[in-house]
Design goal:
alpha/beta, three-stranded antiparallel β-sheet, globular, disordered N terminus, disordered C terminus
């Protein structure tokens, strides 16, 4: 693979300059369906980690040695192939996730961005995020990623309690995390996100709120609160099942979440999504694409994507999953240009269910304009306006259905899963009774 050329270096320099431009609080009006089919976000999966955390069941591997040049070439090839298959002409954002992508070399990141900029339009102000762990993200390394084109960092801090970090199998200490966070903020001011977990075994509300308040003295303008999910096959799941650790208390976790979001609101953060909080306009535009059911391409072992194929005469969006195991994925990419293992066409109702479930995760919800791009004939009022169960949710103040569209209230965001138990069956009933028009892939 050649060293990234002048075009990529010029793009990286322009991207650095674009960081200084002011941000806006809300996403703009969605593009027309024709334009939307030509736009996408790009997710790039780096599958390798130093060790597997006790709670993690993601597609990641602990290698004896990484053939990074081969992995880099395959990431570049698959990105170009999927861009060509999808007909996407504009990449709105790029997200390097994993795994631990901060273990990759900055040259790999630069090579992928160069390939994207060569195959499609990658605007200078596109959000380019890299997930980073404190133990693999020294200041000089973060600066090198910035020079490669990264302009936003997502740091897996998880906890400010060393005993909790040990329980989670993390390789860093709380001091390591704060040191990395300070360096990241110096290099990427206003563009650093941190993750904080809640609902751990034996975790108590008061000390966790204390962690959150301490983090507010150090964090930037974006923070994510994630509740621990015990996943079968993980070390933590086994420890809880065998009685070595107490099971997490869901009522305590709910109390942590409610008090945590109140603390963040008091600190000036907008809860723009169920788990995500931002101030000063620092929303993640990449994740916003997911919640708005925009197209996204998944590159790398086990990556997921959703997009329409161009040139097939079909307007059906596909859900795609790439081959999980890195060595097998690389063989497939070298053979056919991509490692797609599974392709599932999304039916019209399935897509509307995604629009509903994903859109309601945000504080904006689903505007009438957005809904009509996916279903021009069957309106939100047609689907939900006459339902007695929905009217009850509206009267309880959990939902709002008005001239703007359908959205959760502040109280409703916290119980979205229970609301969907009412809303999704109502959508299915309305779909069966109505005569909706074809959905052109969104």
């Amino acid at each position: 693979m050649a060293v990234p050329g002048a075009r990529a270096r010029g793009w990286a320099a322009a991207a650095k300059a674009a960081q200084r431009r002011p941000r806006v609080e809300d996403a703009g009006a969605p593009p027309s369906p024709e334009l939307a089919s030509r736009r996408a976000a790009l997710y790039v999966h780096w599958p390798y980690c130093e060790k597997r955390c006790s709670y993690c069941n993601f597609n990641k591997y602990i290698p004896r040695g990484v053939q990074e040049a081969a992995m880099r070439n395959c990431l570049v090839t698959e990105a170009q192939t999927l861009l060509q298959l999808s007909g996407v002409r504009r990449v709105e954002s790029v997200f390097f996730g994993g795994g631990t992508p901060s273990l990759a070399s900055p040259h790999t990141v630069a090579a992928v961005l160069e390939a994207v900029a060569r195959t499609a339009h990658l605007p200078a102000d596109s959000e380019v995020t890299l997930e980073a762990n404190p133990t693999s993200a020294s200041g000089s390394r973060l600066a090198a990623f910035g020079a490669a084109g990264v302009n936003r960092l997502s740091i897996g801090l998880q906890s400010l309690d060393d005993s909790e970090l040990q329980l989670l199998g993390r390789t860093h200490s709380a001091n390591d995390a704060l040191r990395t966070l300070a360096e990241a903020r110096r290099l990427f001011p206003g563009r650093v996100s941190v993750d904080l977990m809640l609902g751990l075994p034996a975790q108590r509300v008061g000390p966790w709120i204390g962690q959150l308040q301490e983090l507010l003295h150090h964090c930037d303008d974006h923070l994510s609160l994630y509740q621990l999910s015990l996943e079968r096959g993980t070390t933590l799941f086994t420890q809880v099942r065998q009685g070595a650790l107490p099971a997490p208390d869901p009522e305590l976790a709910a109390e942590m979440y409610q008090k945590g979001r109140a603390v963040l609101r008091e600190a000036g953060f907008r809860q723009y999504e169920v788990s995500n909080f931002a101030r000063n306009g620092a929303l993640s535009t990449h994740n916003w694409t997911y919640w708005q059911c925009g197209q996204y391409l998944g590159v790398g072992p086990g990556a997921h994507g959703r997009f329409m194929l161009q040139g097939t005469g079909s307007h059906t969006r596909e859900a795609r999953i790439q081959t999980l195991e890195p060595d097998n994925w690389m063989k497939e990419v070298m053979l056919s240009g991509h490692g797609t293992r599974k392709r599932v066409p999304l039916g019209k109702l399935e897509l509307l269910e995604e629009v509903l479930a994903m859109g309601l995760r945000t504080d904006v919800g689903i505007t009438h304009q957005h809904w009509q791009q996916f279903e021009p004939q069957l309106t939100l009022n047609d689907v939900f306006g006459a339902s007695e169960e929905v009217k009850l949710l509206l009267e309880q103040g959990l939902l709002l259905l008005d001239d703007r569209g359908l959205r959760c209230s502040w109280e409703g965001l916290a119980v979205l899963d229970s609301l969907l138990l009412t809303l999704l069956p109502r959508l299915q009933e309305a779909w069966q009774q109505g005569t909706p028009s074809p959905v052109p892939g969104g």
